[in-house]
Amino acid sequence: MVQAKADGFPAGLFTPKESAAARGLGARDLEDLVRIPPRRYAAPGPLRDLRHLSEGEDISVIVTVERTRERTMKNRRGTLLDVRVRDDEGESIQLTFFLFKAHLVSWHMSRLREGTRVLVSGTVSRYRGENQIAHPDYVLLAENPSAEEERDIAKALEPAPVYPLRGSATQKLMRAVFAKALRHASDLREVIPAAIRRERNLPSIHEAARLLHAPHESEDVERALRYFRFEEAFIIQSIFARRRAQDVADSAPALATYGALSRALDERLPFQLTPSQEEVGEQIAERIAESHPTSLLLQGDVGSGKTVVALRAMARAVDSGYQAVLLAPTEVLARQHYSTITTMLGDLARRGHLDAHEAATRVRLLVGAQKASERRESLLDLMSGEAGIAVGTHALLTDNVDFLKLGLVIIDEQHRFGVDHRRQLRMKGPGELRPHMMVMTATPIPRSAALALVGDLDSLTLKGRPREGADVSSFVVPLGDDVWRERMWERALEEIRAGRQVFVVCPRIDPDEAAEVGEVEASGAPPVLSLGIDHPLHAVTPTLETLRAKPGFEPVRIEELHGRLSSDLKRERMEAFAAGEIDVLVATTVIEVGVDVPNASVMIVLDAERFGLAQLHQLRGRIGRGEQPGIAFFATQFGRGSAQHAGLTELAGTTDGFALAELDLERRGGGDLVGDIQSGTSVAVRFLDVGRDARMILEAREDALVTEALARGSLTTSSLEPPTPGELDALDAAIARHSTRGVDDLERS
After folding, report:
1. How far apart are the first and last CA of the chain?
2. What whole-number distance in Å separates Cα of residue 601 and Cα of residue 624?
3. Three-state SS for 29?
4. Which residues of the chain register pLDDT less than 70?
5. Phi, psi of 56 (to 5 degrees)
6. Helix ranges, 628-746 (H)
7. CB-CB neighbours of 207 under 10 Å
8. Which residues contact 737 (CB under 8 A, 6 or more apart)?
């Protein structure tokens, strides 16, 4: 084994400049470096003669130099070097070099002397009716071919990796870095056990690294990518397998009691539960009644009734003598949940009051911006057990928040939280007990994505809605069309005059800043489609002023809402909007999830192409929650016929969130979807595409579960051999490496 330096690379392997270039790509050691794929490959054209060439064709040809000529450029400083060459069939073509330094002219002319044989590769272009190759690559050949020259020719015709560049690094430097790295490929550790590699017909890591960075042909690249895709899937699925095994090893409170609180809650529900809610509720009750911590993913489309399902599970926890907590990603959503839960419970949430139901518990809210007295009361009630249910934000994760007997943790909009957040809550259980965990999402996850991203969670799906509510019609509005744009605002004004309310969503707060951190870009939702060109984006502040000055809007009550406002002001604005005291709320995506204002009937999203399909579907779900039909306008700077307009039109015609998730996966691919669902994992997932590689992910899942079971001794018979201690050490190291690259943000309980 070669001795390693402090920076992780073998001692003496790289020059300081090469080491800096490797670190610039994010590599800390050889293991990292070989797993950084080229951005693409520059494949020379096939070896051929000069007859019947076509403009734009990539070719490689062996030719002899006939003459060279240098001349001064007419319109700028520099030299044109023309080199006339001829192939063995007598056909000729001109090679043209645009050179701006005298020493380069001399260098090329010293090499390309008359009679010199060269292998030329490049793209055919036309100049004054004749074929030419501008700035070709070339390799000097000897007069009489030798075996070594044949190898040089073959090497020149191989795909050349093109790496991402950072700082002053060049492709020549990066190729030298990876060529040196491959000399130590034997030092790389095998992450995939040998038995699995044989079963899946995969090369060794040493061979895969060579195939990726020094391929002889395109088939080599495909074989290398198959290895690294499987390795990545195997590492992620091994993380999930270990978490599942840990859940089995841990103990949890058995929340098995359907008691007085649960019965009273069910008796007073103002609506009939859907068959799906009843079925999923029974499945949750079975899981949380077990003495080992359960890990569940509850997914349902917008308006499918996840909150009442969660509340019934929390009531069962309280009946069983434990506490339950609901964690929300924003204060706005936390307060909305608190209001919904206390309203639904009524006197069941008023323990300690004279008008409380005999089975009542206490519900406490804990958010960052809270009066000291309110916070103190909440902390005391959680610590003493007086509060059976807690609702809050990240404030619930702080060290000074203690629970008497925490038995159930529910996380809403799970993609906004990292693993560390959930670990902190899992450690707040009583004694050695670990609370059960359920994460909820209204962004449906296709099965292949779920396997890759939440593979250790048992998925439950709510279908249908408790009440269908009103229909929501969706329209795409090209902002450049004056008639459509003005009709959109007129339609909003008509709804306001009829006593209803309007959301207007912008991607920015101020015009001179990037999208609001934590709301649009930081949410992980990529645009519907790549913009192609930049447009000035709508921002909350100027849009607010424009609407206030717009004819017809003078009497309209318009306010703004975004993350930069104080917590008190945000709460006041939302309460005022919910109470009907504000007609138009101009906001960022702070209102994306959870906000329930039944009287809101219009949603206008400006620069809608800047948002992901899931976000737009969530925003559309904020309206049509009452008896009046809803209208969603997706306003875009791009006109009809553009890809952006077409993408939004697809969204407008689809109201099923699960269908939209599949559409998103199919059109944008797994890389973007990973970012959309799993904030932070796009760094960790370099090779996998959850749509394309669904079958491979399933295979890796099976292998990871068997490997973990064999390693723990819980499985004694298998077609696979048990992993060796060395193989387990290598897997441990790979998991640790992935964790530092972002897998800690993978969604799990």
Report:
1. 39
2. 6
3. coil
4. 1-7, 43, 45-46, 144-150, 152, 154-156, 414-423, 443-456, 465-470, 512-535, 592-595, 662-684, 739-749
5. 90, -5
6. 643-652, 657-677, 694-712, 725-740
7. 15
8. 31, 32
Q: What pLDDT, on the 0 to 100 scale, is given for residue 643?
A: 77
Reduced 3-state DSSP string for 219-235: HHHHHHHHHHHHHHHHH
pLDDT of residue 259: 94
pLDDT of residue 449: 64
Residue 488 token pair: 């959109």
pLDDT of the residue at 524: 38
DSSP secondary-structure letter at 723?
P
- Is 318:324 a contact under the CB 8 Å cutoff? yes
Question: Cα 196 to chain center, whole Å?
Answer: 29
Element (H, E) at 41: strand 40-42
Name the maximum alpha-carbon separation found in the chain. 106
- DSSP state at residue 169: -
* Cα distance between residue 447 and residue 453, in whole Å: 10
Distance CA 21, CA 408 (A): 48
CA contacts within 13 A on the Cβ side of 740: 9
Dist CA 464 CA 274 (whole Å): 8
Q: Helix, strand, or coil here: 403?
A: coil
Element (H, E) at 520: none
Between CA 739 and CA 679 the distance in angstroms is 14
Half-sphere exposure of 132 (CA within 13 A, CB side): 15
Q: How far apart are CA 495 and CA 278, in angstroms?
A: 36
Instruction: Report whether 282 contacts 309 (CB < 8 A).
Output: no
> Helix 171-182 vs helix 205-213: angle between axes, to the nearest 10 degrees?
160
Output the pLDDT for position 67.
92
Quote the tokens at residue 732.
Answer: 């441990």
Q: How far apart are CA 673 and CA 443, in angstroms?
A: 11
Least Cα distance to 255 among 318, 327, 345, 306 occurs for: 318
Q: Tokens representing 306?
A: 């996840």
C-alpha atoms less than 13 angstroms from C-alpha of 479 in its C-beta half-sphere: 16
Strand order in the sheet with 387-392: 362-366, 387-392, 323-327, 406-412, 436-441, 295-300, 458-462
* Beta-bridge mates of residue 141: 117
Q: Is 359 helix (H, G, I), strand (E, B) or coil?
A: coil
Cβ–Cβ under 8 Å, residues 240 and 456: yes
Write the CA distances from 653 to 459, 528, 609, 630, integer angstroms: 27, 15, 16, 14
pLDDT at residue 468, as a whole number: 52
| Environment class of 167 (CB within 10 Å of its CB; exposed 0-12, middle 13-18, buried 19+) | exposed
Alpha-carbon distance of 203 to 279, in angstroms, equals: 46
Q: Hunting for tokens 């206030």 — which residue is that?
A: 548
CA atoms within 13 A on the CB side of 495: 24
* Residue found under tokens 């204060």: 331
Residue 577 belongs to what H/E stretch? helix 567-578
Q: How far apart are CA 584 and CA 558, in angstroms?
A: 5
Cα–Cα separations (whole angstroms), residue 456 to 125, 212, 246, 662: 55, 31, 11, 21
The string of DSSP letters for 303-345 reads TS-HHHHHHHHHHHHHHTT-EEEEE-SSHHHHHHHHHHHHHHH
CA dist., res. 478 & res. 26, Å (int): 41
Dihedral angle, C-alpha 366, 370, 376, 377, nearest 10 °? -70
What is the bridge-based pairing of β-strands 584-587 and 630-636? unpaired
CB 554 within 8 A of CB 640: no
DSSP helix/strand/coil, 19 = helix
CB 265 within 8 A of CB 348: yes
How many residues belong to the chain? 749
Separation between Cα atoms, residue 629 and residue 423, nearest integer Å:
42
| Cα angle for residues 248, 249, 255 (degrees, 5° grid) | 60
Tokens representing 299 are 């997914």
Quick one: tokens of 512? 């001179």
